DNA sequence: AAACAAATAT
DNA sequence: GATATTTGTT
């Protein structure tokens, strides 16, 4: 295994003739290497070899210090040689972290020659994996990991700068360097954790959003190691996030305000209706519609004139009473079968038709807007499928029109709507049931209403606004 | 030079 | 996905 690896390393070298050419003269001079090994003796040996290649070497046998140097002085190193004992998860994470924050190639040295170990480290961002004991060749060609950058950043810009006085080695942590440009290390990736972000926010608020520009924010934040660019980038993101928030707020506001509630005690008739709603969605006032014949019966009845004759439930499948509560957000049907109460939500798919009667016969859908008691009948609308509440069109009872339960203003007209438009000018989306939560409202039960004077299954249908929020579920 | 937005890269 | 970097504009 070890041998295989080394062989590959050998062939690799052959693969970089260009780098070698460029670099062969003085390329290695001053390559700044950070070396960590627990074994002090081995460390010294490494150092000796590396210095033979004219590398700048910083040795360290304290792991924490090595990490510290890497993190906080990355501009001082071009590459790091890190010895590891075994692949423990903490170190792997550390490696990943370092890799994400900086651009220093990290080469792992280990006695573990298993493929598993190698793969593990490599997959966590190691640039190479050298098996101990190292060969001098391994060290000589460390630069291969940097060939590109060396060409791009260092050699071409300022080759002489590479030659450094060894005495200028990093010895004190606080020694400032100004080699950002020449360094192969990328700028530290700023992690805007809560603390840093707070400082940012404080600065922005102090300055006022309008006057908060990167430079000033940076001054006020008074944080080391971050650049104006960092702040600019963060500010850009921050502004976008503010804009997004605003948009969302506006959107939800619009959603919340979009339901237009008809004026109480008013009738909206015919042409008034489009004027009234002006393309907005409408939330109905609360109604109770009681004594609804069972849908299975209603299906027989297309002609509302026949409706009253067919109201009786089919044999063995009748209800003693059915009532429906309608609000903008709720449509609940209560069946009363003998003495058992059942509550069921209307399926949004279910198509119902409103047919409005009084002594003069069918009136108009305006009664749906009134808070007053009205006679209303419901029946199944058998022809059209899809979501909708149907109502008959005044003076044209043969042709019930259909209003989908939930149609936003901008909704593309469906075929069912076209039916409505053909027959009458009643606008779409005038009936707007956004949802039917089963517990948000319930309504006065059939029995209660019966006590209140009652009504007769065959004599018409009662709409009231006795709609009380409560949570018993009508049981 | 600084700020910025947008696009693009890491 | 977050941050950095680049680009083009003011």
Q: How would you describe the overall organization of this protein?
A:
Helices cover 34% and strands 19% of the residues. It contains 16 helices and 19 strands. The strands form four sheets. Strands 8, 9, 10, 11, 12, 13, 14, 15, 16 and 18 form a ten-stranded mixed beta sheet that branches. A five-stranded parallel beta sheet has the order 2-1-3-4-5, sandwiched between helices. Helix 3 (40-52) links the parallel strand 1 and strand 2. Helix 2 (17-24) packs parallel to helix 8 (147-155) and helix 10 packs across helix 11. It starts with a helix and ends in a 7-residue tail after the last strand. Residues 1-26, 150-186 and 281-475 have low confidence and may be disordered. The structure holds a DNA duplex (10 and 10 nucleotides).
Give the SSE map.
Elements: H1 2-14, H2 17-24, E1 32-36, H3 40-52, E2 56-60, H4 63-72, E3 79-84, H5 89-101, E4 106-110, H6 115-123, E5 128-131, H7 136-140, H8 147-155, H9 194-207, H10 214-221, H11 228-257, E6 259-260, H12 272-277, E7 281-282, E8 287-290, H13 295-298, H14 304-307, E9 321-327, E10 330-337, E11 340-345, E12 351-358, E13 361-362, E14 374-380, E15 388-393, E16 396-403, H15 415-423, E17 442-443, H16 446-451, E18 462-464, E19 467-468
Parallel strand pairs: 1-2, 1-3, 3-4, 4-5, 6-7, 12-15
Antiparallel strand pairs: 8-9, 8-18, 9-10, 10-11, 12-13, 12-14, 14-18, 15-16, 17-19
Helix pairs in contact: 2-8, 9-10, 10-11
The chain binds a DNA duplex (10 and 10 nucleotides) through helix 11.
